[in-house]
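Quick one, tokens below. Sequence please?
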């Protein structure tokens, strides 16, 4: 029995428990006054049958993998494996792929020998976990059905289960964020043991290439993050915002104040399609269309240093990408301004444009600023557009026609391929990730503070 089959069996048990609880509730209602409706009795039985058993399966899946590995390694075939950990793990991985039909044979003969053992142990431990989960589902259903009585508060029990599920969902999101932060901090601390913190934060040179031998040139590397931070903000927070803020704000004003309802019903979904385009498509557009045009423009203006990979090309396409974020936030903020303020301004003799400038935009400004800050945090975390259009050179320059790089691009470069996680070159990626995480977190907190602090409450 596989865990998938056990999952299906648990759902069947939960469905049967729900039907039995509902039927029992209907019988109790005919016999006398019932506190909760029969549907709550059925839902209560189904929740008690499904949730504990599904939690057991979720917890058993990683435990099963470890138990299978331990059982296989303790077998005669496992004891014959090499003592070198990486080689042993490679053989086990091949044997597991053979056991589950993902490949016919491996590069190492021992993997073919281990495959039947792995398949047998997987079946055995899956049977143990599946039977235990089904038994727990039956036990939960029986206990829930046994509690059914005319005065049993089944509705309160169902609401309590739903509250637990909501709290668990919230905790998963919070703990995931905390786990990301802790994992970045752990590896970043390892990097800062190899490279000074102040040199990383205030350094003006980024050259992460390290030599294999200590006597080779550049063996220590240079990990100054200032050029990367400048490139990130230059592309994502300056050029992209110069493009996105006016276009997004004017789009929102037109759609909310000037467009006919039929035109708005067509244009707004078309505009929001931009938010669903994959970033790699934007990257191709930037590299094949925008970047050559920007280079030709620079050369026509007499800028001999104009590059085919430039900050301007990446920033322009990135600005187009985040127009829907700003437009949507501005649209919602402008639409939330009460109609009485519009009517009052127009009644005082103001034109429609004056009403927009002096009444609507000031009232909607907190939401607009919050949307802009959220769009900035989205832009500085972009990778594919910058990889394909901005280049890899860590230049500390304000020339938009020059090639620059960003934090996300360097993270990709440092972690691409086979890397050793004990060198400063690889660990620098985690330090960059931590810096980017803190920057985007700060921008999000500022956006939330602006929205909460300056939002006006209308009657």
């Amino acid at each position: 029995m596989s865990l998938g089959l056990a999952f299906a069996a648990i759902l069947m048990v939960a469905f049967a428990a729900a039907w039995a609880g509902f039927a029992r509730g209907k019988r109790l209602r005919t016999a006398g006054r019932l506190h909760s409706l029969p549907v709550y009795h059925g839902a209560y039985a189904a929740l008690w049958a499904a949730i504990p058993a599904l939690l057991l399966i979720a917890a058993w899946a990683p435990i099963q993998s470890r138990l299978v590995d331990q059982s296989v390694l303790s077998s005669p075939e496992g004891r014959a494996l090499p003592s070198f950990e990486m080689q042993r793990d490679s053989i086990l991985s091949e044997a597991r792929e053979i056991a589950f039909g993902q490949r016919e044979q491996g590069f190492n003969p021992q993997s073919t020998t281990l495959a039947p053992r792995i398949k047998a142990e997987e079946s055995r431990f899956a049977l143990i976990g599946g039977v235990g989960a089904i038994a727990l589902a039956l036990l939960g259903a029986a206990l829930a059905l046994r509690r059914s009585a005319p005065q049993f508060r089944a509705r309160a029990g169902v609401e309590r289960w739903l509250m637990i599920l909501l709290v668990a969902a919230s905790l998963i999101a919070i703990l995931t964020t905390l786990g990301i932060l802790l994992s970045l901090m752990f590896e970043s601390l390892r990097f800062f043991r190899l490279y000074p913190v102040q040199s990383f934060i205030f350094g003006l040179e980024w050259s992460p290439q390290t030599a294999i031998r200590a006597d080779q040139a550049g063996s220590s590397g240079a990990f100054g993050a200032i050029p990367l931070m400048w490139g990130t903000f230059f592309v994502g927070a300056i050029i992209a915002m110069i493009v996105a803020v006016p276009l997004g704000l004017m789009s929102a004003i037109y759609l909310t104040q000037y467009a006919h309802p039929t035109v708005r019903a067509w244009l707004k979904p078309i505009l929001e399609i931009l938010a669903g385009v994959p970033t790699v498509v934007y990257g191709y557009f930037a590299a094949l269309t925008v970047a050559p045009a920007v280079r030709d423009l620079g050369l026509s203006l007499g800028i001999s240093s104009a590059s085919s990979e430039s900050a301007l090309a990446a920033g322009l396409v990135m600005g187009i990408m985040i127009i829907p974020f700003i437009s949507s936030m501005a649209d919602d903020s402008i639409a939330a301004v009460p109609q009485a303020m519009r009517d009052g301004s127009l009644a005082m003799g103001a034109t429609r444009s004056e009403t927009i400038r002096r009444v609507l935009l000031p009232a909607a400004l907190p939401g607009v600023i919050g949307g802009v800050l959220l769009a900035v945090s989205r832009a500085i975390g972009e990778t594919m557009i910058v990889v394909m259009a901005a280049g890899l050179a860590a230049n500390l320059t304000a020339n938009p026609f020059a090639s620059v790089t960003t934090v996300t691009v360097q993270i990709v470069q440092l972690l691409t391929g086979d890397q050793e996680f004990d060198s400063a070159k690889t660990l620098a990626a985690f330090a960059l990730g931590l810096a980017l995480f803190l920057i985007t977190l700060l921008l999000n907190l500022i956006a939330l503070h602006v929205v909460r602090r300056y939002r006006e409450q209308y009657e």
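The chain has a mean pLDDT of 83. The chain is about 75% helix and 0% strand.
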